[in-house]
Amino acid sequence: MRILIAVVGSLGDVLPFVAMGVELKRRGHEVRVYANPTFSGVIEAAGLAAVGVGSAARHQAFLDSPEATDPKKAMALVAAGVMSNVPLFYDAMYADIIPGETTVIGSTMAFASRLLREKCGLPGAVVHLSPSVIRSEFMAPRFSPLGHMEKLPRCVKRFVWRTLDRKFLDPLYGVPFNRLRAGLGLAPVDRIMHQWLHEGELCIGLYPRWFAAPQPDAPANFHPTAFPLFDGGERVGDKLAAFFDDGAAPVAFTSGTANATSHSFYAASAEACRLSGKRGILITPHKAQVPATLPQGVVQVDSVSFQALLPRVAAFVHHGGIGSTSQALAAGVPQLIQPMAFDQFDNASRAVRLGVARSIAPKRYTASAVADQLNRLTSDQALAARCKAVAAMTAASAGVDEACDLVERILAGVNPTPVTRTAS
What we know:
By secondary structure, the chain is α/β, with parallel strands linked by helices. It has 2 domains: 2-227 and 397-411, Rossmann fold; 238-395, Glycogen Phosphorylase B (Rossmann fold, 3-Layer(aba) Sandwich), CATH 3.40.50. Helix content is 42%, strand content 13%. It has helices at 11-26, 40-45, 56-64, 73-94, 111-120, 154-183, 238-245, 263-276, 306-309, 322-331, 344-353, 367-379, 381-395, 399-411; strands at 2-6, 30-35, 49-52, 102-107, 124-128, 202-205, 222-224, 251-254, 280-283, 298-301, 315-318, 335-337, 357-359. It has a 7-stranded parallel sheet with strand order 3-2-1-4-5-6-7, sandwiched between helices. Strand 5 (124-128), helix 6 and strand 6 (202-205) form a beta-alpha-beta unit. The longest helix has 30 residues, at 154-183. The radius of gyration is 21 Å and the shape is globular. The chain starts with a strand and ends in a 13-residue tail after the last helix. Mean pLDDT is 90; it is low at 414-424. Residues 289-398 form the Erythromycin biosynthesis protein CIII-like C-terminal domain.
């Protein structure tokens, strides 16, 4: 079977689909991955066919924009990028369809895969990497420092979702998307970020139930599996290995792969290490973000495998991306999370609820505050024990294998057993 996988997002979004592609190829399927050309090398290095879609320069411009980490401004920036690429993804994937022998898989924002499913009658699956995109009138996801709206009545939450769509998301996504649909002879859809986002024979959540339990109003086709935990970073090299051997376990810091404007984050992180007396590793391929002079015991690396790195650090400070969060959970390392936008607030909140992390707002991310948090994190024995317990739960799962099992059952024409949904 030919399987076309469309991925829209950063490197952290692409890697889980590379893992799925590798497993599906191992099972005998022909797999093609469609993503920004920036990631073609990573895809091809895994032995998969890569089809570059869109502009690498435009992707870099997004990383370089300060608006990329602003919760309000990033919404319009992301929408413009997503919608401009829908026709490009559609055309590239359409050209590779073999009638009767093709299925499509799309990431959350890969709208073209849903269009192909509908227009061409292809079986299709949607894969969500984080729970924030599954709306609920019960335990609602968190999109800001304001929380999960726990105390609000369901009718108020329903009103919030509807207002968010009508005032913000429909103009950004719905209007241009329905224009594309009209050109394909398809009827318009209403509130595409509400229920339509999960359209397909199967909607997979690549995270476990204990991280985000399906709510009573979850989509009927939704199936959570487990974290993919695929790591495309560089292994620990000789230089970093020598750094580990030269002193106490360091603290690792990263602001993620989806921005190149976190200068204040890395400056405060380096100074926090000096104030707390801790060694540190600043992880970013964008060296311009890092201070020209670092304190003794603090180093910078472009990239490193989290699976190799995190079990050897005293704590992990990051932005709350689902990849960084899940790798830290698997490693059993205490986390300090500074969420900035997108799903990061929700992921941070769930990690805090699990008892393995603390969260700090960007405005409060100062050297003295971070130094204090690091001292608290690394001396909290109860938190350390909880990290160990959660790591054991994470290790007991196989998200990619489960997801591929579900996809194959669809290809065989078998509907997966509906998810058991529980309130939390």
